[in-house]
Recover the amino acids of this structure.
């Protein structure tokens, strides 16, 4: 029997829907770690299905390091203005911009393969897939630039 406490714990760890967390817990017989893996696998499938959708909205986010000597700009695209105006989406874009400033990837492939600076257990590609699952829209990192004096 899956408890509301288990669902709440998984939801706090993943930020995903209550029903999605409940389904993953049922599939994993209540094991939180297995449920997280199930959600990651489902997230990859969802991202793959949404990859063909047209990206008509998005935003440009900047990050300037406290030394004021390093900064970055990143274009983050999504399907709708509804998502692009979401505070969590803006925070996601800021995280990507900060990551670019910190690690200075040369191109999009390198960026996507790098371990995420805030959580080295996932790559930037994994982070994008997580957000695709969370928002239910295709999301793509567009152009980016890193500047340093």
């Amino acid at each position: 029997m899956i408890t509301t406490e288990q669902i709440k714990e998984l939801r706090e760890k993943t930020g995903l829907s209550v029903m999605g967390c409940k389904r993953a817990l049922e599939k994993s017989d209540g094991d939180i770690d297995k449920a997280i893996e199930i959600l990651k696998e489902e997230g990859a499938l969802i991202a793959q299905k949404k990859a063909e959708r047209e990206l008509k909205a998005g935003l440009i986010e900047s990050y300037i390091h406290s030394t004021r000597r390093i900064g970055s700009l990143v274009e983050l695209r999504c399907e709708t203005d509804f998502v692009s105006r979401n505070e969590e989406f803006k925070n996601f874009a800021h995280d990507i911009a900060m990551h670019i400033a910190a690690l200075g990837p040369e191109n999009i492939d390198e960026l996507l393969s790098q371990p995420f600076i805030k959580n080295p257990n996932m790559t930037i590609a994994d982070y994008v897939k997580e957000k695709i699952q969370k928002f239910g829209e295709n999301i793509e990192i567009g152009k980016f630039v890193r500047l340093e004096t």
The chain has two domains: 4-50, 57-148. The two ends are 58 Å apart (CA to CA). The chain has a mean pLDDT of 89.
